[in-house]
Amino acid sequence: MFSELPRDIIERNYEQAKAQYKELGVDADSALAKLAATPISLHCWQGDDVSGFEVHDEAVSGGGIMATGNYPGAARNGDQLRQDAEKAIALIPGTLRFNLHAIYAETDGAKVERDQLKPEHFSTWMDWSKRTGVALDFNPTFFAHPLAESGYTLSSGDESVRKFWVDHAIACRRIAEAMGRAQAGPCAINHWIPDGAKDHPTDRWGPRQRLLQSLDEMLAADVDTTYCKDAVECKLFGIGSEDYVVGSHEFYLSYAIKTGTMLCLDMGHFHPTETIHDKISAIMAFQDELLLHVSRGIRWDSDHVVILNDDLRNLFIEMVRGNVLDRVNIALDFFDASINRIGAWAIGTRCAFKALLYALLEPTGTLQELEASGDGAAKLGLIEELKTMPFGAVWDMACLDGNAPVGAAWINEMQAYDAQVRAERC
Ligand code: RNT
Ligand code: ZN
Description:
The chain has helices at residues 7-23, 28-37, 78-90, 123-132, 159-182, 205-220, 249-259, 277-284, 310-321, 341-360, 364-372, 376-386, 391-401, 409-425; strands at 40-43, 96-101, 136-139, 187-191, 196-197, 228-233, 244-245, 262-266, 290-294, 328-332. The protein is an alpha/beta fold. Helix 3 links the parallel strand 1 (40-43) and strand 2. Helix 5 (159-182) packs parallel to helix 6 (205-220), helix 8 packs parallel to helix 9 (310-321) and helix 9 packs across helix 10. Residues 192, 233, 266, 293, 333 line the site of zinc ion (ZN).
């Protein structure tokens, strides 16, 4: 349905675009090289609506996050999820990592409690990683579990519950360490807990003291942090924690500064009009590294498929202007079960790479000189002119170089795959 431009036209368009960017002092070739060298971590959970493969004796609620929609054909086991992920990866140019959650352990049908998880339960994922060359990242899963039903995990006042989750975190840190060793490079592990209260709690203090204690305990475990790179993710509010979230921004920011732990900023975890791009230079004045959850909030919900909007561009522009791409771990976090899931992955990830490329094509030095010289109109004018530069021609070249479909042609592949998968799975 959507045809791809012939190769020679893509190349000719690129040469013209490159000349136009050169006029502004921007080298499009080096922007493409930098784009190809900057990894983004693709989240496994868009593939199956954050379900995972755990064996449960009883029904459990989502526990603080929920994918809505029932588009047919969701992956229901590791092989299907890997097959779907490979399809999505083929539609995306650029270097990808793959971000797993503990509930994606493969246990051959056996019930393995989360505090008992071992690297061997992820050996198929690690083999896949080796075969595809896609490095892994990891997350403990502190939700969708009977011991999370109270709304409190690492901050629970029930000592046995709190201990269970600390042990889960430690088990996961060991798995991340094993993944890191296997891929000869760090595995980023992100700790997000749903803990909080729907309505005004009378004790905001106790849970935070206990979370602090739990974090100290889990991070003190004997794990090699050259391979296991920990981050903590804050949130303002969530489903069932509308009034109070134990792990708020202030809490984790303080913890991170005090202990040197990496922070994770999710684009959908702040006030609905609050964006995160302005936070990067503030936090990185004190911290070596940062983890980002690239997402899109709409009203009160935080995990819509990422699109190329101002928030996304501003985020990548800030990283490029600050020259911190090698200090920021970029991960995706969205889940939409109402549309084709391969499509959701492809759209959001292609957009993240587009935003990165857009940022890399900015004549930052010129803009900053204009600003320093007090010529605000010239600066603003140039920023606006950049929006109608032939960015698309450079992006098409990135897709061609990256062996991904050019233009809308990826949609054909998504549709063909959808038809095949529906025939097989539904
Ligand atoms: C939830 C957090 C968290 C999760 C994933 C699945 O609000 O954003 O990062 O989305 O861990
Ligand atoms: Zn997140």
